[in-house]
Amino acid sequence: MPRKTVSDLTDEEKILIFALGALGNTPLRTKVMIQKLLFLFSNVFTDFKGLFRYEPHLLGPYSETVENTLQSLIQLGLITDKSAGYQLTPDGLDLCKALSPKEEIVRVISDFKEFLHDLSEDEILAFIYSSYPDFISESARWNRLKPQRIELAISLLRKEKVSFSKAAEIAGMTAGDFDRALRERRVRWRG
Rounded to an integer, what distance in angstroms lies between the CA atom of residue 173 and that of residue 176? Predict the structure, then answer.
């Protein structure tokens, strides 16, 4: 099979290749991480919302386009899905290096990948569901996550992934109630 060149790539393939190649080709452990990375990206760059067409699904926002593009790039040998996660192969890295995305795209994708890379799936979903409640309707996990919201919010706060007010929102609490919950648990989070 002939090798793909940058000019052969669709916009979806380019974005997915660049997203996986960002931060030194750091692997993304699960498809959920890939889906949510590109979902967050498409909410910053609204021109790409129509490209991925996210809809409510069992694990939050889901794009069939992302899933199909990922599978296609795996079959082409540009992405590997080893036990450490999904990352570019040497051929995929070559294509990634040949891409010339705008600096703002580089920054946003890198920031979101850095944000997601060390979070658990539950932390990611708690963040996504609290930030985008329209995507809860089909969720298979929301009812299981709701009782854990405070602990998930505290974990995100401790990891310095969210602000205090965002953590309170994730916990489903007012700022005052969340502050009390932190004190009751003897959680120290301020520097």
Answer: 8
CA atoms within 13 A on the CB side of 10: 13
For 7-166, strand residue ranges (E) read: 79-82, 85-88
3-state helix, strand, coil in the chain (%, to 5): 65, 5, 30
Estimate to the nearest angstrom the gap between the alpha carbon of 159 and the chain centroid: 16
Assign residue 50 a region: left if phi > 0, alpha if psi is -120 to 50, beta otherwise?
alpha
Helix (H) or strand (E) holding 95: helix 90-98
CB atoms within 10 A of CB 170: 26
3-state secondary structure of 80: strand
Per run of 10 residues, the mean pLDDT along the chain (length 191 residues) is 79 96 94 97 89 94 97 96 91 94 94 96 97 94 95 96 96 96 88 46
Phi, psi at 114, each rounded to 5° = -60, -40
Cα-Cα-Cα-Cα dihedral sign, residues 152, 155, 156, 157: positive
Could you tell me the CA-to-CA distances from 89 to 47, 92, 169, 185 in Å, in that order?
A: 28, 5, 39, 45
